[in-house]
């Protein structure tokens, strides 16, 4: 049996920290370009928020598996 822990406000604090990291470019692992504007982001946040982007990242990950650097 799993014990659970109540942490009111944890999800809000988590999102605030992720956004703070994003605005500073800390641990960002993707840049989205929209009409010549650059947006730094975290792939995990984008994939969790968008089925389209999750599918895109899944495909890119699979496609890059066969790339060999020589």
UniProtKB/TrEMBL annotation:
PROSITE patterns: BTB (PS50097). One of its GO terms (molecular function) is RNA polymerase II cis-regulatory region sequence-specific DNA binding. Coiled coil: none annotated. InterPro entries: BTB/POZ_dom (IPR000210), SKP1/BTB/POZ_sf (IPR011333), ZnFinger_BTB_dom_contain (IPR050457). Residues 28-70 form the BTB domain. This is BTB domain-containing protein.
């Amino acid at each position: 049996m799993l014990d659970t822990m109540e942490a009111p406000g944890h999800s809000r604090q988590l999102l605030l920290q992720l956004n703070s990291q994003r605005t500073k470019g800390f641990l960002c692992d993707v840049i989205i370009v929209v009409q010549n504007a650059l947006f730094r982001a975290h792939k995990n946040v984008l994939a969790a928020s968008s089925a389209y982007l999750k599918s895109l990242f899944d495909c890119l990950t699979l496609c890059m598996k066969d790339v060999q650097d020589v």
